[in-house]
Model the fold of this input.
Amino acid sequence: MEKILVTTDQSANSKAAIRFAIALAKQRKAQLTVLHVYHLLKPFKWTEQQFAAYTEEFCQKTTSELTAFVAKIYHELKEPDMDYQLVLVSNMDVVEGIITYASQQGYAYICISTRGAGAVRKLFGTHTAKLISSSPVPVISVPRGYRLTPVKEVLYAADMTDYEVELKKVADFARPLHATVSMVHISYPYELLWDKAVAEDTLRKKANYDINLLTPPRDLVNALMEDLELIIKKRKPSLLVLFTHQTRSLFDKLFLPSNAETYSFHGKIPMLTYKKEHQ
Done:
């Protein structure tokens, strides 16, 4: 059975991801887990027994609070069956805790809310950006202000490297949702234009799914993400899919952030990111 993980810190910002994960798990008939990563510091004067008792009390209290927190979200969605499991994981690094648990337990997707970031936080990274740049498990980042709507169109932004492998993954995500898949490749002036009908027929056969091909021209005045955002604004897809490189130098990560990380700061729709196979 497919498993979906959603993270929460009990903040209002995390509600968007939980709502999305609940709907996604229901549509995909998947098992849903709500994960909270915490870290407690042991006071120097405490004995191991004292700290163990405090940890147990903390976990019981947090479990009770999280249960009420999630129950309220289910109630707001008018979902009578609260079909999920709640897990608390201790790790001093939140992102490491999420990735370790998701990887070891075989989760298909990680859902997390994103709330944007100022200049300093962008430089050093949010939890969402860090997950995108390091998680082997696909990450779905959901904007905090996102209003839950059915996933009807999935927009896959392709750079045409490994697109056959990537397209199959996108189709596998879209299929249980009965969503359409639009593959967009922003073409440069020197690129040869494809015959749309022939190309779409080939793509459908390779992906075993209906694919709509978009090849808008690249506006060299804009950054690539600006061109993509214009397409998103025009088409209004339900979800954006990007495949991201994770093996970049520290300099690249600080001064040349990936398109996926950049979009996670200010995107208006959920974004699903996969690790690129060949980096």
